[in-house]
Specification:
mainly alpha, 8 helices
Length: about 200
C-alpha cells in the first residue's frame, strides 16, 4: 500500500510537478465561450455563431436580413464618425449595453494624452455635422409616417447598441431610410434614397 497522501489528478511537467492552470483564458477558450453563448442566445449553428455581425445590434439586423449590406456598412461608418467626434472633441461616450460596444469604446484615439490637432478637430466636426444633416433630412422625409425618427433609431441602434430584434415595421422602415441617407453621404450607394418607402 502506498504511503502519503493521494496524488492529485491533472497534467504534469516531465519532472512530475503538477501543471498549474494559467490565470487568464486562452484565445481559443474565449472564442469557444463566445460561440457557445451566441448559439444558446440567438439559436444559430456553431458556424453562424462565428459571424462577427452577431456582436452588435446593427450586425444582428444585417445577419437576419432586416437591413442590406450597404445599410450595415453605412451604420458602421456612422458609428466610427460618431465615436471619433466624441473622443476628439472630449465629449463623453454613451455607455453601450454590449461587450462589443465596450470593446469598440477603447477606440484608436484614446490613451495618447496629447491634445488633437485643431485641423483634425475641424475635419472631424465637419464630417460629423454632414452625417447629422443627412439624418435630419431623413427625419424630414419621414415626419408624417408612424414610428420613431430615423436619426433617433440610428443613434439608439448604432451608438447605444440597443437590441433591435423586435422593431415594429414602421421603425424598421425608418431605420432603413436613415441608413440609406448615410450610405448616400458616405458614397456606399449611388442613388439618393427615396423619400417615400
Amino acid at each position: 500500500m502506498a504511503r502519503g497522501r493521494k496524488r492529485k489528478a491533472g497534467k504534469r511537467h516531465p519532472c512530475g510537478k503538477l501543471v498549474r492552470p494559467t490565470k487568464g483564458e486562452t484565445q481559443a477558450q474565449i472564442l469557444a465561450t463566445v460561440v457557445e453563448a451566441r448559439q444558446r442566445h440567438y439559436g444559430v449553428s456553431a458556424a453562424q455563431a462565428r459571424d462577427q455581425r452577431l456582436s452588435s445590434a446593427l450586425g444582428r439586423l444585417a445577419f437576419t436580413g432586416a437591413i442590406t449590406q450597404q445599410q450595415y456598412e453605412a451604420g458602421q461608418k456612422f458609428g466610427e464618425v460618431y465615436h471619433r467626434h466624441q473622443v476628439v472633441t472630449g465629449l463623453p461616450l454613451p455607455s453601450p449595453s454590449s461587450v462589443a460596444g465596450l470593446m469598440a469604446s477603447a477606440g484608436s484615439f484614446g490613451g495618447s494624452g496629447d491634445p488633437p490637432d485643431i485641423d483634425l478637430i475641424e475635419r472631424v466636426r465637419r464630417h460629423y455635422d454632414a452625417a447629422l444633416r443627412a439624418l435630419k433630412d431623413c427625419d424630414h422625409d419621414r415626419d408624417r409616417f408612424p414610428g420613431q425618427s430615423p436619426s433617433r433609431l440610428v443613434y439608439r441602434i448604432v451608438c447605444l447598441d440597443e437590441d433591435a430584434g423586435r422593431l415594429p415595421q414602421a421603425d424598421q422602415m425608418n431605420l432603413q431610410h436613415g441608413l440609406d441617407g448615410l450610405g448616400y453621404l458616405f458614397g456606399l450607394v449611388r442613388e439618393v434614397p427615396r423619400k417615400v418607402l
